[in-house]
Structure formats: C-alpha cells, structure tokens
Amino acid sequence: MNEDPRIRRLQFRAWHRGIKEADLAVGGFFDRYHAGWGEEELDWFERFIEEQDADIMAWALGTLPLPDEWGGPMWDKFAKMDFVEIGKK
Fold first, then answer.
1. Are 60 and 40 in contact, with CB atoms under 8 Å apart?
2. Family, per the entry (predicted)?
C-alpha cells in the first residue's frame, strides 16, 4: 500500500466513480500509469477526475469531442484503453 495520502486518495477516487465502466477506465488508467507520474501528471489527473463520468466515457468513445484542456500525452495514453481488462464469463 502506498503511504502517500495524495496517491491513496486519487486511487480511491479513480476506482469509486459511480458507474462500473468509468471505474474500469479511470481506475485502470491510474493503476497502470500512476507510478511513473510526476507532479504535472498528478495535477492533470486530479483535475480530470473532477469531470463527469458520462463525459469522460463519451470522450473516450469519441461520441463527444475532447475539450482542448484534456488533450496531450496523458489523454493519448487514456484514450488507448489498453489497460481495461474485460473478463469472460
């Protein structure tokens, strides 16, 4: 468990979004990449998770245009969605 309260708080918020799809997307993104983030990336993510789940998912799926403020390397990683694991039943 990470001892940094900021990291613990961000991880909790990333995985407790309100809808399962956003939990998997935002939480999965955090888990995959946060270890390599510096202050700038953590600040971006902290602002990003304040957005509505429906907007985040629509941007990721391309059904809504991505606002300019989110574009860049962090979004490029998020938009790949290669960190979302979908189980089979």
1. no
2. Belongs to the SdhE FAD assembly factor family.
Return the biggest CA–CA distance within the chain: 39
5-80 in CATH: which number?
1.10.150.250
What are the mean pLDDT values of the chain's consecutive 10-residue runs (89 residues total)?
A: 88 94 94 96 97 95 96 95 73
pTM to 2 decimals? 0.89
Q: In degrees, to the nearest 5, what angle opens at C-alpha 29 toward C-alphas 24 and 35?
A: 135
Going by C-alpha positions, the residue among 71, 86, 89, 88 that lies closest to residue 21 is 86
